[in-house]
Amino acid sequence: MDGDNDEGHVIPDQVFLARLPQNIDEDSLRKVLKKCGKIENIRLARDEHEDGRPCKGFGWVTFSSPDEAEAACGLDGMLEVGGRKMSICLARQRQGGRSGKRREVQIVIEPHADCWFCLINPKVEKHMIVTVSPMAYVAGARGPVNDAHVLIMPVKHAPCYAACPPDLQKVLDVHVAAIRKMCIAEGEEVLVWERWIPMGVSAANHMQIQLVPIERKQAGSAREELERLAQIHLGGGLKKINSHKEVVEHLNDDSTTPYLYFECPGDATAKGRVVERYVYAGGNSNARIPMNFGREWACSLLDARDRLDWRQVQDDRQTEERLAKRFRDAFLPFEPSRKAK
Predict the structure, then answer these.
(1) DSSP secondary structure string, 161-224?
(2) Measured distance CA(156)–CA(136) in Å, rounded
(3) Which of 111, 140, 173, 207 is deepest in the core (most CB within 10 A)?
(4) Spatial distance between the Cα atoms of 140 and 341, rounded to a whole number of angstroms
(5) Which domain of life is it from (predicted)?
(6) At 195, is the secondary structure helix, strand, or coil?
(7) pTM score
(8) What 3-state class would DSSP assign to 194?
(9) Are the beta carbons of 77 and 103 closer than 8 angstroms?
(10) 113-145 pLDDT, tens per residue?
């Protein structure tokens, strides 16, 4: 069906709807889907040659964020309009076709003034920033899994770790290692993940490495829980690798291939707990990568499934600022820029 092209890359903030009745209109759809999030645009496929321009049975809805689109997909086959239960899935870019322009995924590394995470954007939530270096910064997570949930991001625009130049990769690695060292000093381990799902708008492609500190008693179950969720959502497919840099070797020379990367506490040894690294690359699989996979891993392991949807657990500005300061104070002795002096 036009628009539901399995060969194209997904558009994470847009869903494709099927099994719509002929008399459906945009307002009716908006009422049904508003529970999923803020709707930016609704486009129904209509028959221009019929009186009243009836719906052809399918259409597209663009949300304000990928998480909202994912929430809508979770209601696939459950929402009813005009006596029919809609089919809902993430939309995909057209690979040519009869109408419309192909929505390209641009891989660029440069500042974007309209990107939520580029520091040149005046709307960046600076009160959540923990520390900034010339190439990367650490910030608290909005709607965190726990109070120490943070993100490591490039200062400039970079879509994913695999597309970063080596010098930026090195800086990101150093920050991950520094936070892990801080956690170990406090008697904790840490879950690390990165998700790369190309978006049609380049300004939305700003990479994030997410880190969630956990208690040592929970670390022994981390790998088992990761494998369990991968089997449920991805049909398995996790591949063990030695470093974050090796992810690119699993993308078939296509930098737009979506992937998930994990750093997982492994076996405990006399020298400390081993860090195991895994990648799931979506280029050769029909499984749709869940936008929330890494967060589900953390929430499930910590028995905090009530925090799975970040939008439902957002803190007020004062709390966000307090959590950022608490992490900043703890991280100060381990901060890479400080150790380099």
Answers:
(1) GGGS-HHHHHHHHHHHHHHHHHHHHTTEEEEEEEEE---SSGGG----EEEEEEEHHHHTTHHH
(2) 8
(3) 140
(4) 25
(5) Eukaryota
(6) strand
(7) 0.71
(8) strand
(9) no
(10) 566 677 777 777 889 999 999 999 999 999 999
